[in-house]
């Protein structure tokens, strides 16, 4: 078997269409969008076009789109930016815009224990440095969080709820629309980390009811270093990067024009293909999961069997070591991962699996397969490689 890359939740290759769309803005229209001459104006036009195209996919206004360096920055900006703006309003004594929705002050944040580190660490920073309190709403054994539990966690001083739309380690999808509906009456803004959801799930702001959404280009066939925070204009946001006031003062620094074009192109392609790709890949995923569960006695599926990303199959193989299984798989031509690429190299069991109630010793046997959107053939040979790899590293039966 030649090499098969099944770690697409970690990152994806740049799509040829994306690279082609970017090239003119790297070499020919290379201006600084803030420059007041024709070279700069051409770049500003391109940036504006990219912004409008991203906004169209999300169902937001062009002015709601902030280009960032990726998912980590988008999450940091959403969480710290919204929270610090709200804390400042409280320090002022009165809401700055009493008429505006989502403008009450306070220092309480709600999230879950299964979020990506860029969310968890941003929240921890607010607790440590800015005196915030945080509630981490527990998830069930399938990594689902209930909208009712989120609603129950709200306080009068809650200024933000940040939830991962789809989990990067186990692929569980949350009912974002139900969570948004539960928050609406309380006028608490919802931030969705949609980094893993993009390309698989609907992103429409009208459908989902979020106030802010994080996306990363490199999970979608755009280059690393590109990302977006979509944030409704009514939500006050304190910037993290101060300087020339680009991105309407929300993110200073000369914009990555080619990156913005690449991001817009990748997002449009992924959205156009989304419904068909999810159905096609979901069918392949289900057959793969069934085959692994049938052929590997120690295999347990992690995450929700139904509410899960079409491109994610994740397991534990009790009695093995996840790292050893990965090495065996790679020898057989299958590249996969133990979960989050960010946690790779660490021996700590995954915080996601622990929060789902999986024992630390079992959590250390996790292996995650994340599929490309173009996948179009059954993965029986990969399931066979899993069977052989697990057998190779399992303690011999007595
Ligand atoms: C759910 C989720 N959020 C955020 C990120 C961070 O995105 P980036 O790698 O673009 O910083 C990732 C990356 O793995 C992720 O899976």
UniProtKB/TrEMBL annotation:
Domain Aminotransferase class V residues, every copy: 5-370
Family note: Belongs to the class-V pyridoxal-phosphate-dependent aminotransferase family. NifS/IscS subfamily.
Pfam families xrefs: Aminotran_5
Superkingdom per UniProt: Bacteria
Cofactor dependency: pyridoxal 5'-phosphate
Protein name: cysteine desulfurase
E.C. no: 2.8.1.7
UniProt xrefs under PROSITE patterns: AA_TRANSFER_CLASS_5
Keyword Zinc: no
Signal peptide: none
Catalyzed reaction equations: (sulfur carrier)-H + L-cysteine = (sulfur carrier)-SH + L-alanine
SUPFAM superfamilies with a match to the protein in the record: PLP-dependent transferases
Keywords: Iron, Iron-sulfur, Metal-binding, Pyridoxal phosphate, Transferase
């Amino acid at each position: 078997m030649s090499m098969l890359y099944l770690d697409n939740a970690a990152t994806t290759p740049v799509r040829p269409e994306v690279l082609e769309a970017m090239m003119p803005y790297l070499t020919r229209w290379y201006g600084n969008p803030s420059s007041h001459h024709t070279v700069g104006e051409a770049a500003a036009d391109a940036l504006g076009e990219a912004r409008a195209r991203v906004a169209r996919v999300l169902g937001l206004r062009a002015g709601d789109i902030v280009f960032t360096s990726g998912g980590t920055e988008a999450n940091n900006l959403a969480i710290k930016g919204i929270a610090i703006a709200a804390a400042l309003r409280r320090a002022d004594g009165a809401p700055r815009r009493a008429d505006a929705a989502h403008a009450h002050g306070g220092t309480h944040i709600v999230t879950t224990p299964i979020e990506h580190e860029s969310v968890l660490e941003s929240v921890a920073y607010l607790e440590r440095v800015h005196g915030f309190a945080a509630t981490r709403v527990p998830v069930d054994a399938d990594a689902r969080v209930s909208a009712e539990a989120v609603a129950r966690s709200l306080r009068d001083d809650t200024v933000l709820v940040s939830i991962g739309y789809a989990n990067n380690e186990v692929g569980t999808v949350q009912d974002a629309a139900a969570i948004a509906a539960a928050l609406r009456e309380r006028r608490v803004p919802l931030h969705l980390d949609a980094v893993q959801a993009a390309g698989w799930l609907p992103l429409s702001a009208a459908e989902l009811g979020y106030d802010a959404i994080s996306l990363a280009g490199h999970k979608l066939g755009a280059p690393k270093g590109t990302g977006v925070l979509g944030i409704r204009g009514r939500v006050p946001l304190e910037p993290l990067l101060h300087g020339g006031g680009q991105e309407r003062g929300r993110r200073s620094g000369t914009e990555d024009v080619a990156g913005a074009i690449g991001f817009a192109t990748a997002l449009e392609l992924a959205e156009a293909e989304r419904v068909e790709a999810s159905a096609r890949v979901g069918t392949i995923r289900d057959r793969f999961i069934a085959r692994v569960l049938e052929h590997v006695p120690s295999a347990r599926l992690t995450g929700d069997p139904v509410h899960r990303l079409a491109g994610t199959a994740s397991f534990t193989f009790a009695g093995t070591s996840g790292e050893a299984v990965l090495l065996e798989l790679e020898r057989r031509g299958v590249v996969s991962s133990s979960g989050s690429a960010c946690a790779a190299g660490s021996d700590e069991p995954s915080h996601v699996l622990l929060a789902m109630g999986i024992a630390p010793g079992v959590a250390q046997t996790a292996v995650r397969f994340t599929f490309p959107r173009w996948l179009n053939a059954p993965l029986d040979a990969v399931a066979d490689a899993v069977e052989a790899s697990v057998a190779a590293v399992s303690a011999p039966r007595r």
